[in-house]
Amino acid sequence: MTTQTTETAPFVPSFDAPESQGRKLAIICSKGNLDMAYPGLILANAALGEGIETHLFFTFWGFDMINRKTSGELKFTMLGNTATHMPQGLGGIPGMTHLATSQMKKAIADLDVPEVPEFLDQIVASGGHLWACRMSADMQHLGEKDLRDDVEGIISASDFIELTEGAQLLFI
Amino acid sequence: MPTTTIAGHAVEVNDEGFLTRPDQWSDDLGAELARLIGIELTDEHWKLVHFLRDDFALQGETATLRRVSTQTGTPVKSLFELFPGKPAKKMAYVAGLPKPKGCV
Q1: CB count, 10 Å around CB of B10?
Q2: Sign of the torsion formed by the C-alpha atoms of A56, A57, A61 and A65
Q3: What is the DSSP string of B55-91?
Q4: Are A124 and A150 in contact (CB under 8 A)?
Q5: Known active-site residue B103
Q6: For domain A23-74+114-171, which CATH number applies: 3.40.640.10, 3.30.565.10, 3.40.1260.10, 3.30.420.40?
Q7: What digits encode the pLDDT tens for the residues A50-75?
């Protein structure tokens, strides 16, 4: 980065600095809880906004994020989550997961952060790539027709490793 | 605070080169800031830059890419075409505003 400040050459941010070119990020989304869907989406969106080539690989429960039937229906539960700092027994009361989910969705919407399907729309519009895990598709008996149209393919773990060569990787 | 001279105007900038005083900005300066980062401003660009200026005046912070998209009705894809690579930061720079703080 240039640090000199002179009267003749204007000091301009180095948006397209060569050292930041060619950076790649791979995010493996393996969870289907509402609260665990967001970290990957937010980081993917941030990376794309920085001009970083970004690939998301949905596997196991993360498949719920790209399955048309479940994408908008992810839930948040207090059960097993001590970070709510509430008695665990409360989480088992009928309707509590529904309530906790509604509250979390409202908190997210209040920040003008979109719901999962719309967030994925934004990621794809920003140039992000979505990939589905072959084994998860086979286990759940799902095919391309069950997934969002913008999922680029159902691929094996080794295919994903190959196409993200040189990428930084996040497992969520 | 360092200063730099852009199109004959002495402006205050931070250590990354973003203008630190929104009141030192003008349309002329905006056009020159854009040129310096390789963007020729069209009417579409100007609409967004002026939205950012107006929104900053009201909200006190720079709109995120999502806010620009939803509030102006401009698809995110178009924002990436108009301000390639790092649209949110480039828009903020051209508008003479700090880079956005929001995550989304």
Answers
A1: 10
A2: positive
A3: HHHHHSSPPPHHHHHHHHT--HHHHHHHS-SSHHHHH
A4: yes
A5: yes
A6: 3.40.1260.10
A7: 999 999 999 999 999 999 999 999 99
B100 neighbors B88 (Cβ within 8 angstroms): yes
Closest CA relative to residue B72, chosen from B102, B97, B101, B43:
B43
Cα–Cα distance, B83 to B78 (Å, whole number): 8
Is some CB atom of chain A closer than 8 A to the CB atom of B101?
no
User: Which value does ipTM take for this structure?
Assistant: 0.89
CA distance A116 to A104: 13
Cα R_g (chain A), whole angstroms = 19
Q: Do A15 and B76 touch (CB under 8 A)?
A: no
pTM of the full structure: 0.89
Closest CA to B97 of B6, B4, B17, B19: B19
B40 min Cα distance to partner chain A (Å):
16
Structure tokens at A130: 């979505």
> Which residues of chain A neighbour B3 with C-beta distances below 8 Å?
5
